[in-house]
Design goal:
Layout: H1 43-53, H2 57-60, E1 75-76, H3 87-104, H4 108-111, H5 116-129, E2 136-138, H6 142-155, E3 162-166, H7 171-184, E4 187-191, H8 201-207, E5 212-218, H9 230-239, E6 243-247, H10 259-262, E7 266-269, E8 284-287, H11 337-347, H12 349-371, E9 377-378, E10 390-394, H13 398-407, E11 410-411, E12 413-415, E13 419-423, H14 431-450
Parallel strand pairs: 1-11, 3-4, 3-5, 5-6, 6-7
Antiparallel strand pairs: 2-8, 7-8, 9-10, 10-13, 12-13
Amino acid sequence: MTDQTAPTPGSPATPTPPPFTAADLPTPSTPSDFADPSAIPDPLATARALDAADPLAAYRTRFAGIDDDTSSVVAYLDGNSLGRPTRASVERIHRFLLDGWGGRLIRGWDEEWLELPFTIGDAIGRSVVGAAPGQTFVGDSTTVILYKLARAAVDAQPERTEIVLDTDNFPTDRYVLDGIARERGLTLVWIEADTHAGVTPEQVAAVVGPQTALVVLSQVAYRSGFLADVPTITRIAHDAGALVLWDLCHSAGSVPVELDAWGVDLAAGCTYKYLNGGPGAPAFGYVRAGLQDSLVQPIQGWMGTADMFAMGPEYQPAPSIRRFISGTPPIVGMLAMQDTIAMIAECGIDAVRTKSVALTEFAIALADEWLAPLGVTVVSPRDAERRGGHVTLDHPAMRQVTAMLWERDVIPDYRDPDGLRLGLSPLSTSFEETYRGIVAVRDALGELTHD
């Protein structure tokens, strides 16, 4: 359906940049060199040099509200909570309202809309999470998808009575699993997670056993940014006979994910962070092909049946990933994410990750130089291999600092107890923007500590 298609990324007007590698960085020559703040004698000049050398810099111009008259934002450092809109998505949504919905009306269901959850799902699988076709779908909120997949997993092993989770997982994950445990008479087995780090393979190995039905963890910890060892933890759970459900909300679109290669059973992730789907955009779910026929999802709706228009007296699940759909797909909510997924396919997730590491290393080096003397602690892992796409800075005054920064059009976010998070989205965040944000943190914290 051509009226819904955005301008093709990578057209002559937007040439495809080559992959971004550490060798492309100016002095300091590799991201790890930023660990020594003295390697940045002139931080602003270094930031501008890094931007000039960044092969992904052209992607920044594809986002609305950057370097134009539509926004007064000095630095947007909250891409790990809500990504910026793309210019192509603004046009896509406008065109859809006039032509796709307004022109085709209900006929749009016959052309494209019914398959959109799986078309986009396959695109996410291919470019973002390392999944072969037919295993990823889009629809519902993250909470609902987590419930569907977790409930289906524990019901598939009724002889097992335990769900393993950690104390610092995102609240929704913990609340959903608590509800399922009460519904099914199961026991929650808690891993005490370090809020400045995350869950380790050793901790998982210590608690899984013959009664473990399901292990639910996040690939990137929402508070610290800790990057979990997904393949090792997945293998440990499988050795105990358990299924594994990974929450990819803070990793999808920022760090490489290889669900098929890692043998992951189930996964869920949101699309409004690094995939720029917009506020409340529907989440995605992944179900390994070999599990699909054996899992019964608990929210049975007509869209998940083998023949939805038969309107039969009994529910007969579709023999495919479609069985995990319940009600009518949120078509409008699926529009914006398509353009960022296409960008990631164009440049490659490895290039995105390389820039992400460089951005976070730069931010940590500036924090060590300017913020540590003010009492700030970097609580995200310093080892880039164990760190996702955001950096968390702790100080007792960070709640006040965050409020001050928002009034000054510098936008990070805050998480209790004392953490200011810098969400550095690689496709839309520049090094100079990162520099300006940390300068603002330094100045605001300086004012508070002086007072």
